[in-house]
Amino acid sequence: MAPKEVPVPESVLKKRRTAEKIEAVRKAAAKKAQTARKVAKKECFKRAETYAAEYRAAERRIVEAKRAARKEGKFYVPAGAKVAFVVRIRGINGLAPKIRKILQLLRLRQIHNGVFIKLNYSSLRMLQLVEPYVTYGYPNLKTTRELIYKRGFAKVGSRAKGWSRLPLSDNRIIEANLSKQGIICMEDLVHEIYTVGPAFKKASQFLWPFKLNSPKGGFSKKGKLIHICEGGEAGNRGELMDGFVRKML
To answer: Is the pLDDT of residue 1 over 60?
Structure first.
């Protein structure tokens, strides 16, 4: 005689139905997120190709302008830099209160910290005042990209709850914080910083101040307290900033 089947308690059945419902919702959300990631990935590739074409077109325009000027017996003067990369090279000893405050406003609180700064009258004036304590110059596209890709960290959180320093290992971190500004991936961030777009301030503040190494081979033999024009390290390097930054990456 076959044993009678023991009826399953209603509470167990209810628990099973709830678990199945939760699992179904979870799978639907995962599928939706996967689809959204695929769409975002395609959009990122499309934007990267657009930016690459834009950079090539800008370089071509400069070459053509130089050729036209040489043909007419004139000189081509390129447009001034829009963005500077500033690195703090001195510590806290003997800092005047005004200099300390300016360095705090520039977010250069530690030695070998670096930030991107939009160049205008106010920022240039501040850089002149703190010139003995920093070195700065005008980074090219390659340097800007390497800094953000290799040393880029996101500043996520709020003043009330505290800030978190997160590595830029996923485009979703960027999209979650800068999507309102139309920035959803790394190439968007690089483009916004390099071209000084309308959301430059948000993008720059989103990036945690870069923490760089001491330069390979050390500083100048004359010391970093002397201006670069006199063989030191402080002051405006101009286009030579690219080589200095690569020694600190």
So the answer is: no
Nearest alpha carbon to residue 137 among 213, 247, 28: 247
Helix axes 97-105, 121-129, angle to 10 degrees: 140
Q: What is the pLDDT of residue 40?
A: 82
**Beta strands at 162-167 and 113-118: parallel, antiparallel or unpaired:** unpaired
Compute φ and ψ for 77, nearest 5 degrees.
-105, 110
Contact 168, 148 (CB under 8 A): yes
Contact indicator for 228, 129 with CB cutoff of 8 Å:
no
Q: What is the pLDDT of residues 100-126, one digit of tens each?
A: 999 999 999 999 999 999 999 999 999
Distance CA 221, CA 231 (A): 8
Provide CB contacts within 8 A for 148, sequence distance 6+.
Answer: 168, 186, 189, 190, 193, 207
Contact 208, 216 (CB under 8 A): no
pTM comes to 0.84
